[in-house]
Structures are given as C-alpha cells and as structure tokens.
Amino acid sequence: MKLSALHQSYLNRRSSNFRGLSGDSSADGSMKSQASVFWLVLHGLCCLVSLVLGFRFSRLVFFLLFSPSTTTNLYSMPFRQAVEASVFQLSTEAANQVLPVNTTTPRVVVGRHGIRIRPWPHPDPVEVMKAHRIIERVQREQRAQFGVKAPRTLIAVTPTYVRTFQTLHMTGVMHSLMLVPYDLVWIVVEAGGVTNETTSLIAKSGLRNIHVGFNERMPNSWADRHRLEAKMRLHALKIIREEKLDGIVIFVDDSNMHSMELFDEIQNVKWIGALSVGILAHSNSAEESSFSLAWKEADNSVIPVQGPACNSSNRLIGWHTFNSLPFLEKSATHIDDRGIILPRKLEWAGFVLNSRLLWKDFTDKPMWMKDLDLFDGVDDMESPLLLLNDASVVEPLGRCGLQVMIWWLRVEARSDSKFPPGWVIDPPLEITVPSKHTQWPDAPPELPMSDKIVDAQGETLAVKRPGKTRRSRSKHDARNKRKHESRNAEVDISEKQTKQN
Amino acid sequence: MRAYWWEFTVVLYISVLLWGCEAEHRPRTERISGSAGDVLEDDPVGRLKVFVYELPNKYNKKILQKDPRCLNHMFAAEIYMHRFLLSSPVRTLNPEEADWFYTPIYTTCDLTPTGLPLPFKSPRMMRSAIQLISTTWPYWNRTDGADHFFVVPHDFGACFHYQEEKAIERGILPLLQRATLVQTFGQRNHVCLNEGSITIPPYAPPQKMQAHQIPVDTPRSIFVYFRGLFYDVNNDPEGGYYARGARAAVWENFKNNPLFDISTDHPTTYYEDMQRAIFCLCPLGWAPWSPRLVEAVVFGCIPVIIADDIVLPFADAIPWEEIGVFVDEKDVPNLDMILTSISPSVILRKQRLLANPSMKRAMLFPQPAQPGDAFHQILNGLARKLPHDRSVFLKPGQKILNWTAGPVGDMKPW
C-alpha cells in the first residue's frame, strides 16, 4: 500500500510537484528494518513541512547542519563575489553529501548554484552598436550571396522645375534614391535654368548628381509639359553619352513613387526593359464625383496599369496602355484645371535602358538601337520605344509586368501659387494677430459683432469660429489652439496680402 | 606543340568559367573536418557488419504499440535506428562474421500522460534483455558485451534516471560497462558517459523542419534568439537548480536587451524565427543536451552553447569549436560582450560551415535514411572503433561483469 502510494507520488512529481523531493531510489526501498521506517516517517514530515513552507526544507536542514560557516543569503539573487564563492562551496558540499566518491572531481557539480546577475543588467550602447554592425555585415554577405550578383550603377534621370510642389515631390524621390543599395548617379535636368532652390534641395541627398539647366521654361498646359519633359530627358541621355556613364538608366520623374524592389528588379535588364506602371490618374478637383463618375463610365474596377503584355510563355507580345478616351472630355489641359490629369500612352518612367546603348562608338551596340542625334529636332518623343527600330526586343521585367513597383502621379498646385523660397519663412511675417482677439476659455463669450471688426482678418476668423465652445477644455489645449489659430491667420493673411499685390 | 598549348588554355578557361558560374548560384559553404579527419561523408557500408538480435516483441514492438507517441518525441532515435538497421546493407544475418551486435530494445518508451519517459523500469528491462541474449547466443559471453552496442537516448543515458543526482548515484548499469553506448547525453568527467560512447543528436522531426523553410535571401535581423523556460517553477521554484542557474541568469541579465529576443512563448513561427536569427542560444536544461542544437544547425543559426564540459554529438567528426560558440556558465552575464566581440569574418565562416549540407544531414534522422545522415554517422563512429582489440575477447572461464551489482530493485525480473 505504501509502495503504491510512493509510486503514485513519483508520477505526480514528474508532472507537477517538487522534483525528487524524497526520491530515494525506487519504491521498493528497504521496508523491513525499523530504521528505514523511521527515515520514511521523517521524510514524510519533511515533505509536509516543505509543502507548507514552499521550499525544500530537508535540504536546508542538511546545509545548516553540515556546513560550518554559511552565509545566510544562500537563496538571494544578487551577485557578489563572496556569496558566489560560498554558494559554490555550499553546493560542492551538498554535492559531496549526495555523490559517491568519484575518481576525478568534476568541474561541474550538481546542486544549487547562484544565479549570476551583473551589477547593471541593461544593454550597453557600445555593445549594441557592435551588434548592429555585425548584423549589417551578415546581411551584406547574404545580399552578396543570394541577391544580385554584379550590381551595376544606376543612372536616374529626373526632369524638374521650381514650383510649389517641387520640394514635396523631390523629397520623396530623393529619399527613395538614398535608400538604394547600389551606386547611383542622379541627373537632374531643370527647366528654366539651374536655380539655387533645386541645388540646395539636391545637395541634401548626398548623392552623386549632375545638375544641368534646360533653357526653356515649363509651359502651363499638360500636353506641352509632357513634350518638354521628353526633350529634357533626351538632353540627359546626351549627357550620359558624352560622359560615357556606364550603368542602367531609369527615368525617375519627380512626382512618381518607386518601391525598393524596383531597383533590385531592374538590375536584371540586359539592354532595354519595360515595367508595369500603376497610373494614379488623379483629379485636381475638390469633389471626387467627376472622376469617379468617369471611372464608372469607363467600367473599370482596378487601377489602370501601363506596361508590357506577355503571352503564357513569358514573351512580350504587346503593351497595356492607358485608355484615355473616356476621360478626354474631363481631362485637365492646364496645370490648375479641375480635371483629370492623364498620362501619355506609355510613360517614360516604365522603361529602363542599358547606358551602353547610348554610347557613340560602342562596338557591340545592337542593330535595333537608333542613334540619339536623329532626335535632335524632334518635337515630341512619346516614349523611348521611338529610339528602337524594333520594339519587340524590349525585355519585360517584374515577372512579365505582373508586379507593379512604380506609380505615376501628377499633382501640382496652382501655377500662380507662391511659396517661401527654400521653405524658410525669413524674415518672420509682419502681420500678426493680436492675442486679445482670440478667445480665452474662461473669458465670457464675446459677442459675434466684435469678430467682424477687422476686415481681412475677420473673414477668416469668422469662418473658424462657429460651433466652438472651449469652456470644457483645459487651458493648455486652449493655448495651443490659440497659437494654431493665430499662425493660420498669419499665413492666410500673408497669402491674401500677396494676392492683393 | 603550339596547337596543344592553345587547346589547353581554352579548356582551362572554359572550366574556370563553368566553375565560376556554378559557384555563383550555390551558397558559399566550407568543408567540415573534425578531429577524426574528413569523415562526415564516409560511407560505412563495407566497413563493418552488424548483427541484429531477434528479441521477443515485448522488448520493442509491443511497447511501441502501447504508446505510438514514442515515434515523435526526442528519444525516438532508438526506434528509428532499429528500423534502419533492419534494412541496411551493413546488416548481416550471420553472427559469426559480425563486428557489432545490436539489441533492439526500446527503454525510453514508458511515457507519462504528458509524454515524459519514466526510467524506473528500464534497468530491469535492459537486464532481462541481456540475460536473454547471453543465454540464447554465445556472443555476449565471448566478450562480456564489448562488441555490442545499445541505443540509450534518455536524459542521462544508461544511468536510467531523469534526476542528475540519482543518475550519478546509480551510475551506468553495471552490465553495460563494457558495451558501446550510443546516447544523447555527453558531459566530460561524468559517471554517465563512458569512454568510447558515441554521442548522437536528439531526434527532431525532419519533415516538420522542412515544412517551415523561408526564402534564403530573407535577411537575418535577430541578433540572439531563444524560446524556452528560464525557471522551472514546477520542479525548482526557487531557481538555481534548473540549468545550474544559467538560464535564469540569461533571463535576469538580458530581459531588457532588445538585441536578445528571448521569452517563454511558444510561437508558431519558431522555426521561421530561427532562420532570421544570427545566434541561437542552446543552454542546458535539466540535462546538458537539447534539440535546439539540431534546430539551430538545420536553420543556419550559430548555436551558442552554454553548458560546461558538454560533449556534443559526433564530437570526433564535427569540429564544434569552429561551428558554435561556447560560453562558460560563469560568463553568462557577459554574454552580449562575448558575442559582439566575435569578429564578423569568424561569424561568416561559422555560417559557411553551417550552410554545408553534409552538416545539416548529419544531425537528422530522416525516413528513409539518406547517405551522410545521423544513422550513417553512428555507423561511421562504430566503424572507427574497429577492429576490436584482441583483449576484449575473454579467455574461457574469465568473467568481468558482476551480474549482481547495482541496486536491489534492479534484480527483479521484468
């Protein structure tokens, strides 16, 4: 009976309770002699006491009885040399109680060990930096092994000109190019000549760039703009030819969006490749209805994509282009029109070339590549396909056009919109709204009449006032709101001032 | 003469080009050679002969029938080794020409409801099997078991106990003192590791690991990875006993460190995460060995072994010092400094060694067996111990084993 009870307790112990608390050998220990019965009873008592106390009581008794000079902080966590030594000593002793004499004293002993914690168990910044460098090195090695084998330099061609949204667009493009893990040359062609504005913007990137001016101003209509951009790109290609730059030419328009996989994918191009471009044909109008109506009319449910079309054996058979016919009536002709801005049939952004195709005396130049000089006076180059004698040599990239890694978008502010040069407000604005005219939360509500005293300011403020009860809000919020409103008022006023001028 | 020279250079150029092209597409690996030499790819067929004893089903098949969970836990190597040997070309049906004798006995298949093996009946079972083979065949008595090998993958090998102090107290079963033990446990200067034992990796299911592969070019962004217990609250509530306090030390020192992705979670993406980590911790638990080593090797994560004096699998065939990082238990508080002070070139070399497919194969027990896998490494290890020294063969009437040694409880028949 006792046997089975002990055996049962073994099973329990294996799954939940104190491990080997009184696990003296197998269940059939010597039951016969009185001494064994006594030890069993003692063990049972120790079990019960340990259950109550919550730790192994018998071991503690053992230690306290047999070790002469013990430190009482046996079970404490913090780490000190002395405690560590005594703990080690104790555990050796404990082990020696249990172990039979071994021939070679093992370095590793069984028993309770202290948990070593260093005095400041927090990350050390120097080590963290070293670890990050190791991670970077490992990832570089992974890229070298499994990524692109011999990465070529990328040559990005960007036509741009100074306008309100230039900083917005160029910052996006700049940051995308800065993230590219390959060598990059950025050729920026600026309509209207080189300006400090663009130069300072590009200089922030730290990329190797060639900034040239183009002696025509950017016209106001979209059609003319597309034409001028094509001319500017040709100009850039001529520069590539003169400088004999070697790499892959991509057409990075400043308002487009590029995904990082794009730059990995285009490394696969041999001569000339085509990618799918998602068209975000956007309407400049405040109401979406005209665009969405036109969209529904055209019976499309997905975003239009321009790019190569392949057959089932992944060979180029044609092109997906943007069908602009349904939108022509509603399309924008001028930059500040409230219509839909449409792309060309095939945008330049969807093509990449090997720069060697442009070189003058390149012996391996394929037959189908025309010489750049032929296009000197050409007015409108719709797409780089015109550079080829035979359009079927284009390589479809991005899983044959299935992956869209680049999005085309044209968003511009009004052509007469002004912006502070370099986006630095210097000198500070002169018109300020006196703070007395903004509402304090605990001030009695001002009569609506008093708001309209100042003519220019009043308009704007009146628009903002209705429906504002700020009594319940905290003073801090009100203060911030006040600052915000005054700033808004300043900007509005300055604009209105400039408009009136 | 000149024509031949031209042809030679052309051939050389083409071969170099081809080799270069091919090398580009394979991940860079390095050849592995341990202290026994370049032996990972040795073929044991023809170098040894193994005779498999025919034991009654109660020693193997019936046990497995009673609990088929034994096929999936980390001690399943004993079962798969039996199946491998039955159909292997090294098997011989003529015991006279055999170099090694194998006893198919599954001692680690008596499982609790939660799946942990109980070793209490194992000594008696083993004893009963040895009595059977010594009376039915003359080969045991010829050498007192010196040319026999047994697979004992339990926590402390043939000491047959899960608790280290008890295991040390029992020592290796006296009847197995002369036999070669194939076990997962390995620690230097420990009673439960005999000189000449072969250490094997614990069983890890190969299909499960294959099913969780991720693309090779996924960048390794986790610095150190570990999932598992730090404190065993059920059996060692105060801490300090479990893992000799090493796991608790890892937790206390690095729980705030973002470089160390350590926790007690059981994520479903465990294998995928290991493939995104550079270092994987393999600290000791109740016993020094762990399946984490196998998982780390298969997934290309450098194992950081925190277990003093451990003997790793196939230690003579695999140069573990060059592949893994060994950290003393007393140095655990400085683990971050130790790992960051390893130079990147050394880390890359370790990764190249781990990428070697023969390394990964040597750690696994695939079904059906493949060349270079753990079964073959075991046979290679046995082959390296041949030929048997003349002295193992006993003179007539000489007896070395003491059949009555050991605890009284072991003498009861099974």
TrEMBL record, chain A:
Residues 456-501 are annotated as: Disordered. The chain crosses the membrane at residues 37-57. This is Glycosyltransferases. It is a single-pass type II membrane protein. Its EC number is 2.4.-.-. It holds the Pfam family Glyco_transf_43. GO terms for biological process: cell wall organization; glucuronoxylan biosynthetic process; plant-type secondary cell wall biogenesis. It comes from the Eukaryota. Belongs to the glycosyltransferase 43 family. Gene3D superfamilies: Spore Coat Polysaccharide Biosynthesis Protein SpsA, Chain A. Residues 486-501 have a biased composition (Basic and acidic residues). InterPro entries: Glyco_trans_43 (IPR005027), Nucleotide-diphossugar_trans (IPR029044). Involved in the synthesis of glucuronoxylan hemicellulose in secondary cell walls. It is found in: Golgi apparatus membrane. GO terms for cellular component: Golgi membrane. Residues 465-485 have a biased composition (Basic residues). Keywords: Cell wall biogenesis/degradation, Glycoprotein, Glycosyltransferase, Golgi apparatus, Membrane, Signal-anchor, Transferase, Transmembrane, Transmembrane helix. SUPFAM superfamilies: Nucleotide-diphospho-sugar transferases. One of its GO terms (molecular function) is xylosyltransferase activity.
From TrEMBL, chain B:
InterPro entries: Exostosin (IPR004263), Exostosin_GT47 (IPR040911). This is Exostosin GT47 domain-containing protein. Residues 47-341 form the Exostosin GT47 domain. GO terms for molecular function: glycosyltransferase activity. It comes from Trapa incisa. Keywords: Glycosyltransferase, Golgi apparatus, Signal, Signal-anchor, Transferase, Transmembrane. Its main location: Golgi. It is found in: Golgi apparatus membrane. Belongs to the glycosyltransferase 47 family. It is a single-pass type II membrane protein. One of its GO terms (biological process) is glucuronoxylan biosynthetic process. GO terms for cellular component: Golgi membrane. Residues 1-23 form the signal peptide.
